[in-house]
Amino acid sequence: MQKIKKIVLAYSGGLDTSVILRWLQEKYGSEIICYTADLGQEIDRKKIMTNAKRLGVKHVIIEDLQEIFVKDYVFPMIRGNALYEGIYLLGTSIARPLIAKRQIEIAKKFKAEAVSHGSTGKGNDQVRFELGYYYFGPNIKVIAPWRDWDFASRNDLINYAKKNNIPVPQDKKGAPPFSVDDNLYHTSTEGKVLEDPSKPAPEFIFQRTTSPTKAPNKSTSILLEYKNGDPVALNNKKLSPAKLLRKLNDVAGKNGIGRVDLVENRFIGIKSRGVYETPGGTVLTFAHRAIESITLDKETMHKKDSIMSRYAELIYNGYWFSKERFKLQKIIDAKKNKVNGKIKLSLYKGNITILSRQSKSKAYSIKKVSFEENKTFNKKNVESFIAKHCKLLRK
Fold it and tell me: What is the pTM (predicted TM-score) of this model?
């Protein structure tokens, strides 16, 4: 077997990536550099360090990327009003490009020949990671253990872990009830108890949202301020992107906002069911469209709508760094400087209601739209407008 001197592994500290770590050492005789990107998920730094050091790892890098993640990845995506298949807010999809980029940068720093991830052979994440790897490191070697090794089941992993003195968490013994991925933007849950779409998602799988039926009986009002297309303040308090999203996650989650049960079409051709919780992101996506409605002209809004499906699909498929996504982002952001103002929302038992919108923009004119007589809109012009479109209708 070819010896590889150094491999940078995307490492969580859990059973799967600890098994991968040991397997890489055993198969390739490599020095492993463990990399953990803190994107706002629940993270046990001590556990990560302890488990990696136990397996002889010298370099364990845990990096807080929460602000970069929200500012440079989540917010641009929300400016595009991105929804995959009309409902999914792309919480897992948007996280992978950033992790892949940093892995390659670390590989270059340590002169590592290879990178590795723990994505399964049936999922989308293997594609997302590897497209990112090859974009920033065209000559890098990519190792995907779930496609390469002989382990056929969870029990195989557990037996291997026991032989190599790798701790097996109590909840990993036997068949796990479901698989979870989370970051500051969302939590996704898949597998096992959710695999049969004829059965409802059990309440115990939800981790960051209260059931709408048990949410407060009194609505919560919030005020969001936008500048250049992005939220900059919550309830008149200026906040950084990550802090604003975290605050929104808390208040929206308590009000039962942001649950989605979706059977989606994976990039590799498999249909899968996922249950997603995106409380703050749901509010921000809703609010962004609402503030755009009084600040952008019709042509700009409709152009954005016409490209949204493709834009969302590119993100879902792992094409964040593609020329096409960059091109669409330019269209999306062409008039973001006009998206300024405040919007007040009511959150109540899973629902979001607009209370008010305010902006200095002249895109919306009360005088023009008013039913009261005024001289700002010539109704006689409508006749020629209709006549013109009657001709187009017959073509």
Answer: 0.92
